[in-house]
Amino acid sequence: MHRPTSNAHEKLLRRLAEFRFQLRRFLLYSERAAAHAGVQPQQHQLLLQIAGKPSDALATIAYAAERLGLQHHSVVELVDRSVRERLIERGEDPADARRVILTVTKKGRRVLDELSTDHATELSEMGPRLAQALHGIGTTKQKTRRTTARKRTERPKQQ
Amino acid sequence: MHRPTSNAHEKLLRRLAEFRFQLRRFLLYSERAAAHAGVQPQQHQLLLQIAGKPSDALATIAYAAERLGLQHHSVVELVDRSVRERLIERGEDPADARRVILTVTKKGRRVLDELSTDHATELSEMGPRLAQALHGIGTTKQKTRRTTARKRTERPKQQ
DNA sequence: CGCGAATATATCGTGTTACGATATATCCAC
DNA sequence: GTGGATATATCGTAACACGATATATTCGCG
């Protein structure tokens, strides 16, 4: 069952490639913006997830790990570095002494605010392009076999 | 110029945080899918950009670097690893002996095809969520714009 | 209330990977 | 053909996330 350069498939590849390219461009912009603001990309993300958490969530290490898609201990190290640079602070949770509550310092806030407006601006430019690159994809996968097609609800991706 | 917990600003933070979270989820999915297919995320991206290039482009190292947002020499190393694992091959450019033309092997193609359909499926699920998280942002960004606005094209960021 | 299991955070050593600096090869203009 | 530009390659280094493991605190249950 060779596909002699299936057009639909080629098209999907091009769209995926374009999407990832645009995505990478955004991430590169973001990395550079962070560097420009004097922090590392991951520190920026940490600040963002702490400051941007919903009001009903606790900014613990575990929360940050979940939001950043990292292991707890990777976050511990990220927090170590960030505390050292006075971007955030460790606080205690009165309700559970095992936990650490993370708060953003004034300095961290300043950095984050700068980055946030930058990103908002950049995204209002690049967002549409990204959204469009994204748009073509779901609709392009038409024939390419329908097996993997609809396991929509969950994904048995372990670890 | 203090913002006493500006509501609009808080909202922007939450939206940005949510967007990055969704983005990270996608990237995490992608990383795992690549691992599951037996390649590293960057190898997947390399395959994708080579196979998904527009027909008028040459799949050189420099092209890949541009598309992956990496330095040439990082790509050289990525290519080294990928060639070693028979995912791609180095070829010569008859027109310019300095160049290396990259081609995807059968094995690489198999891997990429698997990953592509997976990603198309995943994106048709998660794409809308991503697009929506994206959508709220440009419109939430109130005033503060202008400075640092658009020096996207190049940036003297030596980092 | 006391002990083991579960949860939350921390430490240590390691491997991967992208980078800067630099080197080599080829092309192009004159 | 020589010099500068372009394209790829090599080497040493540092950042960062990870696995394995350790410590601290809370919870469940008798």
Structural class of chain A: mainly alpha
Oligomer: homodimer
**CATH superfamily membership of chain A:** Winged helix-like DNA-binding domain superfamily/Winged helix DNA-binding domain
Q: What is the CA-CA span between the terminal residues of chain A?
A: 33 Å
Q: Stretches of chain A where pLDDT falls below 50 for ≥5 residues?
A: 141-159
Query: The CATH topology of chain A, please?
Result: Arc Repressor Mutant, subunit A
What does the largest sheet of chain A look like? 2 strands, antiparallel
Could you give the order of strands across the largest sheet of chain A?
A: 1-2
CATH class of chain A: Mainly Alpha
> SSE order of chain A in H/E notation?
HHHHEEH
Mean pLDDT of chain A: 86
Would you mind describing this structure in some detail?
- The structure is a homodimer of 159-residue chains.
- Chain A is mainly α and 159 residues long.
- Chain A has one domain (8-146): Winged helix-like DNA-binding domain superfamily/Winged helix DNA-binding domain (Arc Repressor Mutant, subunit A, Orthogonal Bundle).
- Chain A is 62% helix and 6% strand.
- The first copy, chain A, has 5 helices and 2 strands; from the N terminus they run H-H-H-H-E-E-H.
- Chain A has helices spanning 7-37, 41-51, 61-68, 72-84, 106-140; strands at residues 88-92, 100-104.
- Chain A has a two-stranded antiparallel ribbon with strand order 1-2.
- In chain A, strand 1 and strand 2 (100-104) form a beta hairpin.
- The longest helix of chain A is centred in the C-terminal third of the chain and has 35 residues, at 106-140.
- The radius of gyration of chain A is 20 Å and the shape is elongated.
- The first copy, chain A, starts with 6 loop residues before the first helix and ends in a 19-residue tail after the last helix.
- In chain A, 35% of the residues are buried.
- The model of chain A is unreliable at 141-159 (pLDDT under 50).
- The interface between A and B is large, with 64 and 61 residues.
- Chain B binds a DNA duplex (30 and 30 nucleotides) through residues 40, 42, 60-62, 70-78, 80-81, 96-100, 159.
